[in-house]
Amino acid sequence: MQTHNNSVLEISDMQQLELIHELSENNYRNQQLIQSIPVAVYTCDLDGYITFYNKAAVKLWGREPIIGEDLWCGSWKIFRPEDGSPLPLDDCPIARTLKNSKSVRGEEIIIECPDGTRRNVAPHPDPIFDSGGKLIGAVNMLIDITDLKKKEYALRESEEQLREVARELELRVNQRTKDLNEANAALKNTNNELEQFAFIASHDMQEPLRKIKSYAGRLNRSQLDEQGIKHLEKVMSSAERMSSLINDLLNYSQMGSSSDQFVKTDLDAVLQEELNELEVLINQKQATIDKQKLPAVKAIPYQMIQLFRNLLANSLKFLQDHVPGKITIASKILTLDEIIRLNIDKDQQYTEIVITDNGIGFSQEYAENIFQIFRRLNGRSSKYEGTGIGLAVCKKIMDLHSGKIFAISQENIGTSIHIILPIGNDTIR
Predict the structure, then answer these.
(1) pLDDT band at 356, cuts 50/70/90?
(2) Which of 143, 268, 390, 399 is most buried as measured by Cβ atoms within 10 A of its Cβ?
């Protein structure tokens, strides 16, 4: 029996040794596992003294704490994130966990290392209990959120910059709106003055011209010498020119009236009517007209009449002497690629009408000048009469119709005037 009892005791001792060895092995593995975690982890006893820490904690703190001497946290100093004021160590999250036996979540602290660098940290302290439920210490996990806070700060700063840009933009828009309102008011006053001028031009300024022409016409040419007749002809010519200028200015100023209505307009009928009106001049110039059928568009009819009248008269005026004159009028619907190249509304459908003559032409560098009011490429002493307003009227008509007009020309070869007009949704096809 004694032998048996000794054998039992020997077995029990062996088992105890194996259990102690197994526990040691488990503890070693657990420590190794905790050491390999990239997040700072450490433990404290009931009094707050640090009992264990991993490598990540040393890296975060910038120092290696002394077991059994350092309290609550291994960092050099702790601060509140709200205002940067120092946070007493015995009021840090893990200290409160030990005092209250409760986990702490959702807090943030700032720790300072011995070299002065600071890190934003989110602590996660939890109480540790033994098998009987007695508090024996606490474990804390510290998550470094410095980079996250920097990004958050940068985001807030960006948002503030965006808000500042938005405020600045709003101020600019308000100022621009104010400027536009003032400009519109000034434009309204200008238009009123222009209307008054048009009234004066059509009545008061025409009256003295009529008298000049009337009295000049009463002069008996037989009583004048050759020099006197020349002077009289110059007076009559100047009076006629002034009258034409006033009429053209009047037409230009009155264009774009709010009473003008866009309606379906058959451009082919308008063109034919103007060709009939210019029949005498066409015959005098011995010109031939070659035209295609033009479409109907949504337009202001009398402005289309003015457009073709001015362009046809201009082409006939600048035909070359001793060369049979020829004017061709072609039309086509623009493709989407052509519309994009012209930088016009791609949601619209457009027709292009080209009036080409074999006249004297001009250098292409002056192509934009010809549509400016009072800009003439031929001087007043030139044999080509005109006020310099006709093509400016055409340009204004095209602007009012959201279209384009431009010229392509070569000296002594001829000129092509390109008219780009939106067809409109309700037009005749």
Answers:
(1) very high
(2) 390
- Cα distances from 265 to residues 323, 418, 426, in angstroms, run 35, 19, 11
381: which DSSP letter? T
Place of tokens 């601060």: 79
- Number of neighbours of residue 238 by Cβ within 10 angstroms: 13
The number of angstroms, rounded, from the C-alpha of 64 to the middle of its chain's C-alpha atoms is 58
- For residues 159 and 165, the answer to whether their CB atoms sit within 8 Å is no
User: By three-state DSSP, how is residue 380 classified?
Assistant: coil
Q: Residue 69 has what DSSP assignment?
A: T
Distance in angstroms (rounded) separating the CA atoms of residues 243 and 211: 12
Kindly state the average pLDDT of the residues 231-253: 71
Convert 384-399 to b/e letters by CB count within 10 Å (16 or more is b).
eebbbbbbbbbbbbbe
Contact between residue 108 and residue 78 where contact means Cβ atoms under 8 Å apart: no
Dist CA 134 CA 153 (whole Å) = 43
The predicted pLDDT at position 322 comes to 81
Q: What is the pLDDT of residues 52-104, one digit of tens each?
A: 888 888 898 888 888 888 888 887 788 998 888 998 888 889 989 999 999 99
Q: What is the pLDDT of residue 271?
A: 92
